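#lab-general

N.A. 3:47 PM
ok so I finally got the sequence cleaned up, no stray characters, all 300 residues accounted for. can someone with queue access submit it? mine expired

B.Y. 3:52 PM
send it over

N.A. 3:53 PM
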Amino acid sequence: MTSGLNLRQLEAFRATMHAGTVVAAAGLLNVTQPAVSRLIAELERRIGFALFERRGRRLVPTAEAQQLYREIERLQLGVERVAQVAADIKLRRAGALRLAVLPALAQWFAPRVATRFLSTRPDVTLFIDSLPSRQIADLVAIHQYDLGVVERPAPRPALEIEPFEGIETVAVLPARHRLAAREVIATRDLDGERLVLLSHHSRLRYRLEELFARRRVVPNVVLETPQSTIACALVAAGAGITLVSRVAAASYAWRNVAVRPLKDRVTSDFALIYPVVGGRSRLVEVLAAELRAEIRSLLA
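B.Y. 4:20 PM
back already:
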């Protein structure tokens, strides 16, 4: 039976997932630890399954808890969206937009576009978030965001997809690495080198593996991450060499790394996405034009 669920139980569960412990969750909610424990116990009784396993002093979320948490987070985004719309209506703002971009674009690409867009629109507000491509696609499809910039997704009925021209992949190396002296990096140069690659959630990873196979290079992958910005940060720390889009590498070009083109052309494919239902406002069209212009400047 779930009819007895209440907001306070869900808040206690969400806070515990965020904070990692009941004690920390109690601090977030400004209540006592027993109160949080009681709310979670009541929630478990109502839904009929355990949310946490106790391992020593640690609480470990169950797989069911993770699934429930994802749904609660999605609902929370909806609540925040309603609150934002209400505030816009109250303050009679000229307009408010919500943009979601890949982490690779959040460091400098999105800030440059946002600053230019808002410079002539003082009465417009812009909310920017950084999320994985699949999550952005899901949330744009249900109008949680007005538009998104993602790694090109598979076609789906709820989305309108506008692909960009492919952006070249580059090698990012520690500044003192021996290969940093070369103007161009060949695939064979990477044979035996310590590599930091994007995980298999990225299409770029599959393209790189096809390239390695063609050149008969066995990659020595010592680290994997779903985010190209993390990959670049690992290179800056001296962990190895990474291969990412030129967009992602741009925000790390001065951080103790060298950025070199690849002899073999491999591209990362990005796209603008919009919800199909409801049409686009004039503000969305203008922001989309700014995003396209910034991408074109990278390809020039």
